[in-house]
Amino acid sequence: MDRELMLKTIADYDTVWDVVVIGGGATGLGTAIESASRGYSTLLLEQADFAKGTSSRSTKLAHGGVRYLQQGDVSLVIEALHERGLMIQNAPHLVRNQAFVIPTYDWWGGPFYTVGMKVYDILAGKLGLSPSKSLSREETLELIPTVEPDGLRGGVMYYDGQFDDARLAVSLAQTCVDAGGTIVNYMPVSDLLKVDGMVSGVVASDLETGKEYRINSRVVVNATGVFVDRVLKMDDPEAREVVRPSQGVHIVLDKDFLPGDSAIMVPKTEDGRVLFVVPWNNRAIVGTTDTPVEKVSLEPRALQEEVDFLLEHAAKYLTKDPTKEDVLSVFAGLRPLVDTGNGKSTSQISRSHSLMVTVSGLVTITGGKWTTYRKMGQDTIDKAALIAGLEDKESRTKDLRIHGWLKNVDRKDPLHFYGSDMIAIRKMISKNIALGEKLHPDLPILKVQIKWAVEHEMARTVEDFLARRTRALLLNARASIEAAPEVATLMAEYLEYDQTWIDQQIRAYTKLAKGYLLVDIEVKS
To answer: Which of 55, 53, 18, 52 is nearest to 34 (CA)?
Structure first.
């Protein structure tokens, strides 16, 4: 992906785009792929970086949703389980089968959850993973040696999917381009164009140059997550707000807290949520919370009570009680829940997606979850094509391989999530051995990844690289701060920026990353 080439495509485009998508998170990217793969001329515009918001801050699970099954939302579970199977099929280098164990401490827990997970297996149909099964106390402790043994009766094992959300987002962006789409990050939409009261395009500006673009389109899709109300008010200042944002927080711990390969799932905490402790990139992620928030932000911050909740509940189920000092990173994301006006708590609001069209023809897609991104895109383009009067074309995404598709990868290889692109990356190392060096002793990142991110993944800032092209910010925020100066220096070389840019980037990233730590640190000079 070449940003300059994308901007030139926009500047030189002398006709009307079929579809313009606003928003470069999971939903927007899924929608843009759906559109481009059908052969519609497609442009996606993102106000910051791809997956900067909610889509890089998930629990990293491609799952049907055990909690939704408990709530009786069977149709959502069936849809999500089907899409989970397609994710594993279409992006095997990024999505994999993950074993989960529900530890049981009550006499009724084993039989109850065994039956529930068998239903989960059945609903998955032919795209199901390995079958669930009940476990003895000894088997549970063997799989999860750090689970609290006092009162443990046994467990139930089941399987779901796990993935790297930001990396999948980057691959989706590349897939869209491979299909003929045009995408640009750091290009916020400031207004909608209209002809005779109908939406006919957007006004957008390149944050790097300040240049404004007036872009005509047959249909505009608002896929901006928690920001959909801002775009709806561009269309109609009196529009009712449809999103009720909820914050989910996660903490990242060292692998010692969960040394096995299995994840822990606690089906019900004090606030009614499911709690996960999941192995991920040689770390353990604990989450999540569900806290209603009034204001939306690209960089939400965890509340103290949310962190305390996670530490407290992790201590209940782990033999080693984590403290603030053990937290390598804490991150927060905002869920774009659809406000149905029924007064339900955010944890009870359905995660089904909502598709709406205004009287002026603006198509808005919101709600949903990462696992159903493809189905959301399909439904959205079905509607958008009808609104725009585009030629009717069938969806191709059920079997569309995601960029980098590679069936068998060695997940211990630090480059495995690049899939088939690993070949080109290793050729870069063969031409310059220094690119094969580690960026930091505590991070599984090679210097070659900086060059690749700039030249092929549209990384524009140090944050883009350390937070999303790699996951350094989440894996070890302190180490990522220490690595920032070298990242800035190498990115400046590839982007042809000066020392002023380097200094600004280091300051900006250090300030941001400190917000992911629970204890103050001194930054090494």
So the answer is: 18
Rounded CA separation 446/438 (Å) = 4
Compute the distance between CA of residue 273 and CA of residue 348 in angstroms, rounded to an integer.
9
- Domains defined for the chain, CATH in brackets: 3-54+167-238+351-399 (3.50.50.60), 94-162+244-347 (3.30.9.10), 416-514 (1.10.8.870)
Cβ atoms of 31 and 171 within 8 Å: the answer is no
- Residue 276 CA to residue 260 CA, distance in Å, equals 14
- Token pair belonging to 45: 């515009």
Place of tokens 């095997």: 92
Q: Where are any strands of DSSP class E within 106-188?
A: 133-136, 154-163, 182-184
How far, rounded to the nearest angstrom, does the alpha carbon of residue 311 sit from its chain's CA centroid?
23
Instruction: Record the tokens describing residue 16, joined without a space.
Output: 């009307």
Amino acid identity, position 261: D
Q: Determine the Cα–Cα distance for residues 31 and 37; give it in Å rounded to an integer.
A: 10
Alpha carbons 85 and 369: distance in angstroms, whole number: 15
From first to last of its 525 residues, what are the pLDDT tens digits of the chain?
999 999 999 999 999 999 999 999 999 999 999 999 999 999 999 999 999 999 999 999 998 777 666 666 778 888 889 999 999 999 999 999 999 999 998 866 677 788 888 888 888 888 888 898 999 999 999 999 999 999 999 999 999 999 999 999 999 999 999 999 999 999 999 999 999 999 999 999 999 999 999 999 999 999 999 999 999 999 999 999 999 999 999 999 999 999 989 999 987 776 667 889 999 999 999 988 889 999 999 999 999 999 999 999 999 999 999 999 999 999 999 999 887 655 554 444 445 778 999 999 999 999 989 999 999 999 999 999 999 999 999 999 999 999 999 998 998 899 999 999 999 999 999 999 999 999 999 999 999 999 999 999 999 999 999 999 999 999 999 999 999 999 999 999 999 999 999 999 999 999 999 999 997 655 443
Integer-rounded Cα Rg, in Å, for the chain is 23
Q: In the numeric block, which tokens belong to residue 20?
A: 């313009």
User: Which pairing describes strands 95-104 and 154-163: parallel, antiparallel, or unpaired?
Assistant: antiparallel
| Residue showing tokens 């872009």 | 215
Burial of 157 (0-12, 13-18, 19+ CB in 10 A): buried
Q: What are phi and psi of 478, to 5 degrees?
A: -65, -45
CB-hemisphere CA count at 13 Å for 210?
0
Residues 118, 120, 126, 130: what is their CA dihedral angle, to the nearest 10 degrees? Answer: -60
**Please, what sign has the CA dihedral across residues 301, 303, 309, 314?**
positive
Tokens describing residue 358: 């205004």
Residue with tokens 């957008």: 204
Q: What is the DSSP string of 119-141?
A: HHHHHHGGG--SPPEEEEHHHHH
- Distance (Å, rounded) from C-alpha 478 to C-alpha 461? 18
Q: Helix or strand or coil: residue 52?
A: coil
